[in-house]
Amino acid sequence: MRLRHKPGAADQVKENAHYVIPNPTEQKGSWKDVFQNDQPIHIEVGTGRGRFMVGMAKANPHINYIGIEKYTSVISDALDKLIEADVPNLKLLNVDAQNLTDFFEDGEIDRVYLNFSDPWPKVRHEKRRLTSKTFLNMYQQILKNDGEIHFKTDNQGLFEYSIMSMANYGMTMHFLSLDLHHSDFEGNIMTEYEEKFSSKGNRIYRVEAAFRM
User: What domains lie within the chain, and their CATH numbers?
Assistant: First the structure.
């Protein structure tokens, strides 16, 4: 993803600490206190410009959402959408997902969303893929026993890699589509990338998977 510089993005993030939580390590194990309720918590790793998370939060007020994005200029766009939507069940984190276990306690999260992640196609970059064994291990730690990973991409190579990675890790697939937009799946909320790629005729791949208890 080519990043554009957004003047004032860092200041905007700092000025909206109610939405973009500063020092999230301090909230580890206490996210229900942040939301002031006991609703399930779903996170998106690599939330981008926020269309998916804001859409999910508006559609499901009974679920709390946390969008994680390391690039300040990008999360600033998500913040714009969140401020406009003014939904109480969505927070943002401007942090690197490589440190997820620093922000969430074991079993604190109910679901992880991975949407149109960077495929990192070179072999030497495998550990950077968000469905590599390294990341699956972190997800397993922070997810409840019945927690799930929901993964979408237009990249066939990344999808095939992810299916193999999850299978090798011993995960169970609950739903799998090789062409999401021509399936009977209901309630899909598109990301910015999803709309862009699908408009070009690209297939969208999707899988729901859970760790075996």
Answer: 29-211 (3.40.50.150)
